[in-house]
Automatic annotation (TrEMBL):
Domain of life the protein comes from: Eukaryota
Gene3D superfamilies on file: 1.20.1280.50, Ribonuclease Inhibitor (3.80.10.10)
TM spans (from-to): none
Signal peptide: none
Protein name: F-box domain-containing protein
InterPro entries: F-box-like_dom_sf (IPR036047), F-box_dom (IPR001810), LRR_dom_sf (IPR032675)
Domain F-box: 39-91
Length: 540
């Protein structure tokens, strides 16, 4: 027995020594970590780095992957845990213990809550939301992609008046008519509304009259898929919409998708939105035009009328004056600036017309151009007369740079293309995207006096007389004009001749950029250098 007690005592002593050694090793490792270059960073810088990492992770399927930084070392863990802003963005659904821990570590920082039903069960998303909504007084932003039924299941226990910090409310329902329900009761009469600056309701019914209480709104987006409204909704009238917009004088962006008010010819009033920067409309074209006519916006506001289904050419003729009034300043605050850059391509069953008042460099590829916000973004019926009429009305004479997709040459006959381009005499740079080389040559060699009416031009004046830079983007050189046979040299020879002719009449092209073009060789590019000062070829 004594020997047994002695062995047990010895074991305990050894375990104690082992713990002491382990603690000593940990202290040594901690000291070694403090000697690493990364440990010299101030804690504030580390916290900023963790913040950027968290931001990147939230855009992925693993929004909390950034938490692994807390397992690297003791210092990193302490920095992360003591930075409340890292924990204030809650992505749901999540484990209840994790949600509680995050809210505790966020301390007094206002919460941003993002929840998506996705493939999660309704029970799981509801459990997470109910935990968070008990702290609705702490929520600054609430972004929910859930069905109306799910929203109704948890939202009856709170009102917007209980959310004094709430600045952004975004509700989006999954696709499907069955998901669209009644107006969320959170928009019931609210005696003490929160300082909402951003409301975004998509596939959710919305109450125009009840939005008047939110006078601090800066961003309003309301919409449905096409034809997805149902009988639960209140009737949208032009008078009701204008009454609401008149109360929202701080609006900076207004986006209404496929749920425009009905046309009411008895209303002649207008509403001024003095702070508006962006206006986006989609839906029946005449309804879009009616609302445009009733709104007075700053001349600097960007306007987009897209996703239009055009029943007839006549409807387009009735629609266009409302857009032109914004372009020329008839229904704007101040005088709009002239368009300096234009882009034209086909999108679905429409031509997509975009225009910028700030000149865009012609070197910008179309996909990068898509990332810039145009002053005007307009869907035009995809036929020749509509395009001619639109370009004639939209004041394009001062444009300098032009992006043209091959759809223009495929749908619009060559004479009409020349007629359209003849109204853009100031254009000095064009990017031809996915054209055939022979079609490009046809444009460059066209004399606009052969197309325009007598007396409207000077004999021998080329279309785009100021043109000095051309970008050939994915242009095909492997078809000879007038035949379907491969004959690249012939295409280059004709282009060479057209450039020589322009040079001889003072309409010289001085710069040629060739990108991703098919069927052209280095020797053929070299031949073009005989008539152009600068040729930039990517060798593809």
């Amino acid at each position: 027995m004594d020997d047994g007690n002695g062995r047990e005592q010895t074991r305990e002593e050894l375990q104690l020594q082992l713990q002491q050694y382990e603690h000593a090793i940990m202290r040594i490792r901690t000291r070694l970590n403090t000697m690493l270059p990364v440990s010299r960073l101030p804690f504030e810088v580390l916290a900023d780095i963790f913040g950027y990492l968290a931001l990147l992770c939230r855009a992925t399927s693993r929004p909390y992957a950034w938490v692994h930084v807390t397992h690297v070392c003791q210092t990193w863990r302490q920095v992360a845990i003591q930075c409340p802003t890292l924990w204030a963005d809650l992505v749901l659904p999540g484990r209840p213990d994790c949600i509680y821990a995050a809210m505790k570590r966020a301390k007094a920082i206002p919460l941003t809550v993002t929840a998506s039903e996705g493939i999660s069960s309704q029970e799981k998303i509801l459990g997470s939301l109910k935990i968070v909504m008990r702290n609705i007084h702490r929520i600054r932003s609430l972004e929910l992609t859930i069905s109306w039924n799910t929203f109704a299941s948890f939202s009856r226990d709170f009102a917007l008046s209980e959310a004094p910090l709430l600045q952004k409310l975004q509700l989006s329902a999954p696709i499907g008519l069955s998901q669209i329900g009644r107006i969320p009761h959170v928009f019931n009469s609210c005696p003490d509304p929160p300082p909402l600056e951003h409301i975004d309701l998509y596939r959710y019914c919305y109450p125009w009259p009840r939005l008047r209480d939110y006078t601090k709104l800066k961003h309003l987006r309301l919409g449905y898929d096409i034809h997805s409204r149902n009988s639960h909704e209140e009737t949208v009238t032009m008078a009701g919409v204008l009454d609401t917009l008149e109360a929202l004088h701080l609006l900076e962006t207004l986006d209404i998708q496929n749920d425009l008010p009905a046309i009411d010819t008895t209303i002649i009033r207008t509403v001024t939105l003095p702070s508006l920067r962006q206006l986006a409309l989609s839906g029946p074209p005449l309804n879009c035009a009616a609302l445009l006519d009733h709104l007075i916006v700053p001349a600097t506001a960007c306007i987009a009328v897209t996703d239009i289904i055009w029943p007839t050419y006549t409807q387009f003729l009735h629609f266009l004056p409302a857009v032109v009034a914004k372009v020329v300043g008839a229904t704007t605050i101040g005088v709009p600036r002239a368009f300096k850059s234009l882009a034209l391509r086909r999108e679905g069953s429409s031509f997509e017309f975009r225009a910028w008042t700030a000149e865009q460099p012609i070197e910008i590829a179309p996909d990068y151009l898509d990332r810039t916000t145009p002053k005007m973004w307009l869907d035009i019926p995809c036929h020749t007369l509509s395009l001619i009429h639109a370009c004639a009305q939209l004041s394009l004479a001062e444009a300098h740079t032009l992006w043209l997709s091959s759809a223009v040459a495929e749908i619009v006959d060559s004479a009409s293309v020349i007629r359209i381009l003849s109204g853009m005499a100031s254009v000095n740079a064009v990017r031809f995207v996915e054209w055939d080389a022979n079609e490009v040559t046809s444009v460059l060699s066209s004399d606009r006096t052969e197309i325009l009416e007598a007396g409207n031009g000077t004999a021998g004046t080329y279309v785009l007389p100021c043109l000095h830079t051309i970008v050939l983007d994915e242009v095909k050189f492997n078809h000879c004009p007038g035949s379907g046979h491969l004959h690249t040299p012939r295409c280059v020879q004709i282009l060479h001749a057209a450039l020589c002719a322009r040079k001889s009449t003072g309409c010289e092209v001085k710069r040629l950029i060739v990108r991703n073009c098919e069927g052209v060789t280095e020797s053929q590019i070299d031949s073009l250098k005989e008539v152009i000062d600068e040729v930039d070829w990517d060798g593809q």
